[in-house]
Specification:
By secondary structure, this protein is an alpha/beta fold. It folds into 7 domains: about 160 residues, Arc Repressor Mutant, subunit A (Orthogonal Bundle); about 60 residues, no CATH class; about 150 residues, P-loop containing nucleotide triphosphate hydrolases (Rossmann fold, 3-Layer(aba) Sandwich); about 70 residues; about 70 residues, Orthogonal Bundle (Arc Repressor Mutant, subunit A); about 180 residues, Serine Threonine Protein Phosphatase 5, Tetratricopeptide repeat (Alpha Horseshoe); about 80 residues, Alpha Horseshoe (Serine Threonine Protein Phosphatase 5, Tetratricopeptide repeat). Helix content is about 65%, strand content about 5%. The protein has 45 helices and 14 strands. It has a 5-stranded parallel β-sheet with strand order 8-9-10-7-11, with helices on both faces. A 3-stranded antiparallel β-sheet has the order 1-2-3, with no helix packed on it. The chain has a 3-stranded antiparallel β-sheet with strand order 4-6-5. Strand 1 and strand 2 form a beta hairpin.
């Protein structure tokens, strides 16, 4: 078995490409391949595949996808379930990504330059295409960026190796173009200069140095670094060998962390430093464990740095002390490197120059902990290319990345197993085992922050006679108070506050208001409404907060907070009207979006409320639909945390969209909250109809009856309630009642002048006429519906009416007319909501099945099934698979039929 992730995610058995299913399913395989031969917890897989928007009952959906992958892969590659997660077992050499990483790592360890070059070239040949083509989730994008950094590092290593073996003439065919694309890359500039010099083109090498220097000055405001300046001087001097200085081996590392666990991915990323010797930048929020990670890696690689280890806490975000000045740090480093105090130059620039000179050809590790900004770090970078540097910071230090080639290594919070492991290492396995439930509460409420977990463990160890359950109760009641030690460096509030000290006024105010956001995240327009600020100022404030790791832009334009940070932010919020502004913003934009999606049904939607925040710009209904999809989790949260009027408004505004796009569970959650908080008739109706959509018609009826009781003289509500009652009792086989309800819905629509609803009622009544054999009546009703749809310019409505005419003529035995109507319906449904097209395809397949037999119907069923899978409409997928199983059985394909029946049963069990 061979697996590929460069390009599309593929699996090949004996050279034959296997069918891995749709994109979400292939994303599951990708998530397992990245952590090959290691268990991946189910919650982590769900986050990788769906990000912040998992489906309801995501565990069940994940089980289905894994089951299909097992069948697709066969016995050669095993996906097993263990420790609450899944593990894919295969030979790493059979996965192109792992083979790429193994080859590059082996190349960095080799002393044989020619052999190392061969390995790197083999690795790069595997990675020509970008990884994970066709997949798009926040995790996939992060992995794609990580691989891009690794590939770029491998390219740079290849060029270094090629220069060592004398292939400078060959490199001159590619290096000038690379350097032109990245004029500020000093390492690349140095490689080109060296190739030119060795080719006898010293003048060209010197000219390229001036080009690079001018680009750095003009665009970044900085001179070339010491390595490039030294190379320039060597070219001028015909490359003399430097003298060997007297050496002293500094040992400045603090003790290794005692309770460190996990962080395998980050440690692997840092391992790439050994021979590439770049600057690694560990970034993350306060308390996330950057220092521990840096020290853990540094102590694990002591022998790789025979010339010593330098370390300094720069105090960039110390809650008490001021940040250290770089010249003071340089003087300390000079002393550690053996420079007597009397020989240290008086001028700070001369001190920095001596520091770079002493480190230019040493194999040193320099750990710069808790840096505030690039200006504090840049003077402390060693000279030459043989040292490795670890920088930790709460800021992203983009200047360091741009000008010094630093490689960012993001440090995120620990997952739940990692948090539990840290706590167990602090407290001891016996104490955790004695109170497992309390220990689980402590681990969970530590929020994945090693600092918070350490505080909780310290409190537990300081009172060994007090049960963990008592501390767990305190954490539940007042989470931040329980994490306040009274000692500023380890108090969570003080740690977060230290990050705020360097921010502007807008960023500090917005930080507090973001703690009020009811949903999982917020987009820029929502943040602008929340803060009552113009969008440009909000963008600047969000950038500041993101640079300080107080918010995370997990997808472009959307920002979220760690839950402990959010608790602290909420304590700082100082605008009582902010939450109402945000909720009013959502209600206004939801109304605008809904009006674009169903312009023919204004009577079913509430009036558009006044604009709050930025004016939404939806050029087409597709952009409007995308906004609702992006904001769906936030809209549900607003319904529960805003005022009751917000819940009722969103329930009514979004009902048609959520139903038509098959977001049944989200719709049910929204309408349930609105109905319970307000008793609104539209919310009750929509709640009941969601249950009908899930096949729970009997459970739906009480809510529909309650809505019927509050209709009063509201013709729009009267029309809607009777429409949904007719569909619901029709599902129960009570066709006479269904006809009566549809007749009432039609009468209310006519009295109200609701032409779109008139057409809907005629379609529903026409369906009942077909069931009862009243074909002439059905034809009249459906043709009227088609006429209304054409008058309104509503292709979706027209497609449904034309599809119903196809069903009608199928019952009449007129195959030519039936198929013609279905073709028209499918043509009308192009470009509209795909769930409408699904129903038409299913009706067309069922009609073909009845008129021309099972074999003729199977392609239509397959097309409908594929569309179900693409849209994720699992209830409809189960219905299609049951019908398809019957057709397959009739065609003698019993094994395939049984597979579809089993899949339909799994889906229905998950839905309920």
């Amino acid at each position: 078995m061979e697996f590929r992730v460069f390009g599309a995610v593929e699996a090949l058995a004996d050279g034959v490409r296997l069918d891995l299913g749709h994109a979400r399913q292939r994303c599951v395989l990708a998530a397992l391949l990245v952590d090959l031969n290691r268990p991946v917890p189910a919650e982590r897989l769900i986050d990788r595949v769906w990000g912040d928007r998992p489906p309801l009952r995501a565990d069940g959906v994940l089980r289905t996808y894994v089951s299909r992958l097992r069948r697709a892969l066969g016995p050669t590659a095993t996906i097993s379930r263990r420790a609450g997660g899944y593990q894919l077992d295969a030979d790493p050499d059979d996965v192109d990504l792992h083979r790429f990483r193994d080859l590059t790592a082996r190349a960095r360890r080799l002393d044989d330059t020619a052999h190392a070059l061969m390995l790197v070239e083999e690795a790069l040949a595997l990675s020509v295409a970008d990884p994970f083509t066709g997949l798009d989730t926040p995790w996939i994008e992060a992995e794609r960026q990580l691989v891009a950094v690794e590939r770029e590092a491998a390219q740079a290593h290849r060029i270094d190796l090629a220069l060592r073996v004398g292939r400078h003439a060959e490199l001159l065919a590619e290096l000038p173009a690379r350097a032109a694309e990245r004029p500020w890359d000093e390492r690349l500039a140095g490689q080109l200069m060296l190739a030119l010099h060795r080719a006898g083109r010293a003048a060209d090498a010197l000219r390229h140095y001036q080009v690079t220097r001018r680009a750095l000055i003009d665009h970044l405001g900085t001179e070339p670094g010491p390595e490039l300046r030294e190379l320039h001087q060597r070219v001028l001097d015909a490359d003399p060998s430097p003298a060997e200085p007297n050496r002293r081996v500094p040992q400045l590392l603090p003790a290794a962390p005692a309770a460190f666990t996990g962080r395998e991915r980050e440690l692997e990323a840092l391992d790439a430093l050994l021979d590439r010797a770049p600057v690694a930048l560990l970034t993350g929020g306060g308390g996330v464990g950057k220092t521990w990670l840096a020290l853990r890696w540094a102590h694990g690689h002591r022998d790789d740095f025979p010339d010593g280890r330098l370390h300094v806490d720069l105090r960039g975000f110390d809650p008490v002390a001021e940040p250290l000045a770089p010249d003071a740090v340089v003087r300390g480093f000079l002393g550690a490197l053996g420079v007597p105090p009397r020989e240290v130059p008086a001028d700070p620039d001369a001190q920095a120059g001596l520091y770079r000179e002493l480190t230019a050809d040493r194999r040193l590790l320099v750990v710069l902990d808790n840096a505030r900004d690039t200006g504090q770090v840049a003077p402390l970078l060693p000279g030459g290319t043989s040292c490795a540097v670890l920088v930790t910071s709460r800021h992203r230090l983009t200047g360091l990345v741009a000008t010094r080639g630093a490689v960012p290594v993001p440090v995120d919070v620990l997952d739940e197993p990692g948090s539990a492991d840290v706590l167990a290492r602090h407290l001891g396995a016996d104490r955790v085992a004695a109170e497992p439930e309390a220990a689980e509460v402590l681990a969970r409420h530590g929020g994945g922050l090693p600092l918070a977990l350490g505080v909780l463990a310290a409190r537990a160890k300081s009172a060994p006679h007090v049960p963990l359950a008592a501390l767990a109760d305190e954490v539940r009641a007042a989470r931040l108070d329980a994490l306040d030690t009274g000692d500023l460096p380890t108090s969570l509030r003080a740690v977060f506050a230290a990050s705020l000290r360097v921010l502007g006024a807008d960023a500090v105010r917005l930080f507090g208001l973001l703690g009020l956001v009811p949903g999982p995240d917020v987009a820029v327009p929502g943040a602008a409404a929340l803060a009552d600020l113009p969008v440009p100022r909000v963008r600047r404030a969000l950038r500041e907060l993101e640079d300080a790791h107080l918010v995370q832009q997990h997808v472009p334009g959307r920002y979220r907070m760690h839950d402990l940070v959010r608790l602290h932010a909420r304590e700082l919020a100082d605008d009582p009207a902010a939450l109402e502004r945000l909720c009013d913003h959502y209600c206004h934009v939801a109304s605008v979006a809904a009006a674009m999606f169903t312009p023919g049904e204004p009577h079913r939607r509430p009036p558009v409320p006044p604009l709050v925040g930025p004016d939404p710009a939806f050029p087409t209904h597709r952009e409007a639909m995308r906004w609702v999809d992006d904001e769906r989790a936030c809209l549900l949260a607003v319904a529960g945390h805003g005022q009751p009027r917000h819940a009722a408004h969103l329930s009514r505004a979004l009902a048609r969209y959520l139903d038509t796009t098959a977001q049944v569970h989200d719709a049910l959650a929204l309408h349930t909250v609105a109905a319970e908080r307000t008793g609104d008739g539209f919310a009750l109706t929509n709640r009941g109809f969601c249950l009908t959509r899930l096949g729970l018609a009997e459970e739906a009826l009480p809510f529909l009856r309650r809505a019927q009781a509050v209709v009063g003289d509201d013709l729009a509500l009267e029309n809607l309630v009777n429409t949904q009652l007719g569909i619901t009792v029709g599902m129960l086989g009570r066709n006479t009642e269904a006809e009566e309800f549809h007749a009432r819905a039609l009468a209310a629509a006519r009295r109200g002048g609701f032409r779109h609803s008139v057409a809907v009622a005629q379609i529903n009544s026409g369906d009942q006429d077909i069931i009862s054999g009243r074909y002439d009546s059905a034809r009249v009703r459906l043709e009227e519906a088609v006429d209304v749809a054409r008058d309104l310019g509503d292709p979706g409505l027209g497609a449904v009416a034309l599809g119903a005419l196809g069903v009608l003529y199928g019952h009449l035995g007129d195959k030519a007319a039936a198929y013609e109507y279905f073709e028209q319906a499918l043509k009308f449904s192009e470009g509209v909501v795909r769930t409408l097209r699904m129903g038409i395809l299913f009706d067309a397949a069922a009609t073909t099945h009845r008129l021309d037999g099972a074999e003729a119907a199977l392609p239509r069923y397959a097309e409908a099934l594929e569309l179900c899978r693409q849209t994720g409409y699992q209830a409809e997928q189960a219905r299609v698979q049951v019908a398809m199983a019957e057709a397959l059985t009739e065609s003698g394909r019993t094994a395939e039929a049984e597979e579809h029946r089993r899949s339909a049963s799994e889906i229905r069990a998950n839905l309920r």
